[in-house]
Write a structure and sequence with these properties.
With 280 residues, the chain is of the alpha/beta class. The chain is built from nine helices and ten strands.
């Protein structure tokens, strides 16, 4: 990997705002707003009346125990799991504003939403029969209608950015898990999204490969990409996030800046969770 993407050592615990966060855009413009979002899956209330706001250029990490509804909430944002109730606004526009119970959202609205919102999944979701380069160009051609030459030019720029310029002609099976996840990030960035969603992007990786992915995500945060991240990487969330949301049983238990949530949590359930995952 290029030097700029070498994984960073954990920062010392000084209680100060992590370096780099104060260099990001000042925010102010609302990128995501959720109002009373709820979602039932298989008879289970996975998300319960969640309301959140994320400003442009900021990073929000969503943490909590397994089964808390974190991934489902993330999928509600881009309607991979359409909410049963509540409203989702992305970049000031209500998603599927005319949606009615029992009716599918309009395909045109969803296509526009997913052009503006990139998503990186736990298990990469690459096309195994396509080269790395083709994995990054295909959506550009189909969604953005870029010609092949422009799509390849953009893809090579992004592969260079994530440290994989030499893997353009390789196939996913010839790449490590960390490399495949970085390809997935390049693919999502190729659509020039306004917002990036990350669903446990390192959960399928060992610590060393996961560090490669986290380095790329740090770089995106420093560049001002708006991100919502479901993660079990507590130190990463503490160092990189502008806000941290703790979920429990489908609901938001508490929310605040990382220096408050991690050091002075309000709820006993949050304290127990953090003590368990941070071994303190």
């Amino acid at each position: 990997m290029p030097d700029r993407l070498v994984p960073m050592e954990p920062e010392p615990d000084t209680g100060a705002v992590p370096a780099g966060r104060d260099q990001r855009p000042a925010g102010g413009r609302e990128m995501v707003r959720l109002e009373g979002v709820s979602k039932e899956l298989g008879g289970h209330q996975a998300v319960r009346d969640v309301s959140l706001t994320l400003e442009a250029g900021k990073v929000m990490s969503i943490i909590g125990p397994s089964g808390a509804g974190k991934s489902t909430l993330l999928r509600c944002v881009n309607f991979l799991a359409p909410p049963d109730s509540g409203s989702v606004f992305v970049d000031g526009v209500e998603v599927c504003a005319d949606r009615r119970p029992g009716l599918e959202p309009r395909a045109s609205e969803l296509a526009e939403l997913r052009r503006r919102v990139g998503m990186v999944f736990q298990n990469f979701e690459l096309f195994p029969h396509l080269s790395v380069l083709r994995n990054v160009t295909l959506a550009q051609e189909r969604v953005l209608k870029r010609d092949r030459a422009d799509a390849e030019r953009r893809a090579r720029e992004l592969l260079e950015r994530v440290g994989l310029a030499d893997k353009a002609d390789a196939f996913p099976a010839q790449c490590s898990g960390g490399q495949q996840q970085r390809v997935a990030i390049a693919r999502a960035l190729a659509l020039d999204p306004h917002l990036m969603l990350f669903d446990e992007p390192t959960s399928a990786l060992d610590p060393e490969l996961g560090a490669e992915v986290l380095s790329v995500m740090r770089l995106l945060a420093e560049e001002g990409m708006t991100m919502m991240i479901v993660t079990h990487e507590m130190h990463f969330a503490e160092q990189v996030s502008d806000s941290v949301v703790v979920m429990h049983e489908g609901a938001v238990l508490e929310e605040g800046p990382p220096e408050v949530v991690f050091k002075r949590p309000v709820h006993e359930r949050t304290r127990r969770f953090l003590n368990a995952v941070l071994d303190r």
